[in-house]
Amino acid sequence: MTREAILYEIKDYINITLGLMLYTFGFTVFLLPYEIVTGGISGVGAIVFYATGFPVQYTFFIINAILIVAALKILGWKFLTKTIYATFALTFFLEVAQKIVLQPDGHFYKLLGEGNDFMSLMIGCMMTGTALAIVFLNNGSTGGTDIIAAVINKYHNISLGKALIIIDICIIGSSMFIDRFGAIDARCRMVVFGLCTMVIECLMLDWVMYYQRQSVQFLIFSKKYQEIAHAIASSTEHTMTILDGHGYWTGKPTKVICLLAKKRESLQIFRLIKSIDPNAFVSQSAAIGVYGEGFDQIKVKVKKKDK
User: Fold this and answer.
1) How do 253-262 and 281-287 pair as beta strands?
2) How many other CB atoms sit within 10 Å of the CB of residue 181?
3) Which of 170, 148, 196, 194 is nearest to 50 (CA)?
4) Strand-by-strand arrangement of the 215-221 sheet
5) Which residue, of 2, 29, 115, 249, is most buried by count of CB atoms within 10 Å of its CB?
6) What SS3 state is found at 262?
7) Are 220 and 256 spatial neighbours (Cβ–Cβ below 8 Å)?
8) What confidence tens digit (pLDDT) does each residue in 119-167 have?
9) What are phi and psi of 89, to 5 degrees?
């Protein structure tokens, strides 16, 4: 493994750790004290905790350990290495966080006070959704239902998203059968809140991941196109295409740099262009999707008859 690859791995683990810490904060401070049910293995742990008092982190760890061992042969070490790390890290963070928010009377401290269950749900799910996006963007996974969905996706033509939704609905729906949650109307309310957590968390996850992956296309018109292209290539490691253009009014030939980059790199690219040629003409447009080396992979399935 090269030095650059090692640095990328270290960066991934640091970002995954920060994501797990944010998830722990949102889950422990805003969801657990208000007995809000969520999807995933954390949701299973929460339901078990509400019903029996058995700690969330231990349920999370036990189920994940079983799933990792069961899926090891199917998915391999490469997929599960960061999942194993996330399982141990999140178990530790959940245990520490619960000790911090636990009051002397044995109840969790409600930061927003009594009667603010739905507000707490929204804030908590915005945090957990953002945290999951951070983990996924850094090639990580919190395990649990992700492992189940990956196994299902490997053998059946069911997308990861559909598999996760089906599993989460089953987990949230199971709270209807626990008498500890009160009368049927209270249990229905808990299921409705659980479905809300699923929707808000998924929307937040998708929004953060889309924002980070959003790409743009630059068309750069400049007489100093070679200097600009060299500066961009050396600073961002992006390659680009030089197009032949023709000025309508001047009738003179010109060169146009065509560049595809991440939206977050826009400011850096504009600075490079301005430092070399302040009079350059630049067009920037949003790209719905960019696929290939350095961007997203093409994930459509090719039918045998089309090969």
Assistant:
1) unpaired
2) 20
3) 194
4) 241-246, 253-262, 215-221, 281-287
5) 29
6) strand
7) yes
8) 999 999 999 989 988 888 887 777 777 666 666 656 665 555 566 677 7
9) -65, -45
Q: Tokens 């959940």 sit at which residue?
A: 94
Q: Which residues pair with 296 in a beta bridge?
A: 291
In terms of DSSP H, where are the helices of the chain?
3-26, 40-52, 56-101, 117-137, 145-155, 160-173, 184-213, 225-236, 266-276
pTM equals 0.73
Query: Token pair 């809140």 is at which residue?
Result: 193
C-alpha–C-alpha distance, residues 29 and 166, integer Å: 27
Identify the CA nearest to 36 among candidates 132, 110, 121, 128.
121
| CB proximity list for 184: less than 8 A, separation 6 or greater | none
Enter the tokens of residue 223.
């007489």
Residue found under tokens 């070679």: 226
Q: What is the pLDDT of residues 74-119, one digit of tens each?
A: 666 666 788 888 889 999 999 999 999 888 888 888 888 888 999 9
Give the Cβ contact number of residue 6 at 10 Å. Answer: 10
Position 70, amino acid:
A
